Amino acid sequence: MKNKNLIGLFLCSALFILGFSINGNISLYFNISGLLIVFGGTFASTLISFRMEQLRIVAKVMRSAYTTEIKKETEIIEILIDLSIKSRIEGILSLQEKENETSILFLRRALGCLVDGFHSSQIRDILSTEMYFFKLRREDSERILRTIADFFPAFGIIGSVIGLVSMLGGIGDTSIILKAIPVALTSTLYGILFSNYFFLPFAANLRERTNHELLLQKIIMEGVIAIDSEMNSVILKTKLESFLTPSERIEKLVSYRKIKERFNIREETEEGPRVHD
Q: CA-based angle 195:28:170, to the nearest 5?
C-alpha cells in the first residue's frame, strides 16, 4: 500500500509540475522574496503559538507516520487467537514470553496487565485510559498541523500586499514594478500551495492513521479481556471478526435451512402458520 501511495504521489506531482511548465518557463514561479516572506512569517507564527517540545513531538509523529508500517486488523486478530490458544494450553504466565517479543507497544502493555493478574475491569479501565490520552495527543498534533496550514495562505496574502505596495511605490520606474510583480503573485501561490499540498494532507493522513490505530487498540483490549476470561478461541475469533468489514471476514454463511432446523421453524401454509405443541 505504501508503494502504491508513493507511485500515486509521484505521478500526481509530475502532472502538477507539468501544469506549471506547459505554458511557460517553470523558473518564473520561483521567487526567493516570496518564499522568505511566506516561510519566515509562517514559522515565526508557529514558534510564537507552540512550544518547541510540541513541535518536536509533531515532527516525530509525522516521521513515524510515513516510515512505520501499521499491522492490519486481520494480523492482530491472528496474534490474539494464537495467544488465546497458548494461554489455554500453557497458562496465562506463558504469555510473559510474548510480552517481551511483541513489537506492538499497546499489546505489550495489555499483556503486561494480563500477566500481572489484573482483573478484567482493571485491564479495561487502564487500556481505555491509555486509548483516551493517545487520541488526545494525536488530536493535538493534528491541530498544530492544521494551524500551520492556516498560517500559510495568510502570509501569502501579506506577501502579495507587500508586492503591491512596492509596485505603487515604483510608479514611473518600470524596473521596480517588474521586480515587485513576481513577489505579489507568487506569495499567494506559495501560501495556498504549501497549505493544501503539504500540511492539510499531513493532518488528514495523521487522522486516518490515528483512527486505524485506535481500532487496533480496541481489538487488542477486547481480545486480551476475552483471553483473561478463558473464552473459547473459536468464539473469540467470531467476536473479533465483528470489527472487520464483511469483505475482510473469512467465514461461511449459515444456510437458511440450518437456521430453520436450529430454531425449529416450519414454513407457513395456506391454512396459516403451524404452531408446535
A: 95
Kindly report, residue by residue over 2-45, the tens digit of the pLDDT.
566 778 778 888 888 888 778 667 777 888 989 999 999 999 99
Residue 102, helix vs strand vs coil: coil
Beta bridge partners, 110, equal none
Residues 6+ apart with CB under 8 A from 127: 106, 109, 110, 113, 217, 220, 221, 224
Residue 9's H or E segment, with its range, is: helix 2-21
Burial class (CB in 10 A: 0-12, 13-18, 19+), 275: exposed
Per-domain boundaries in the chain: 31-262
Please name which of 143, 122, 96, 138 lies closest in space to residue 221, comparing C-alpha atoms. 122
Beta-bridged to residue 272, according to DSSP, are 269
Instruction: Show the DSSP H helices in 102-173 as ranges.
Output: 105-115, 120-169
Most distant CA pair in the chain, distance: 105
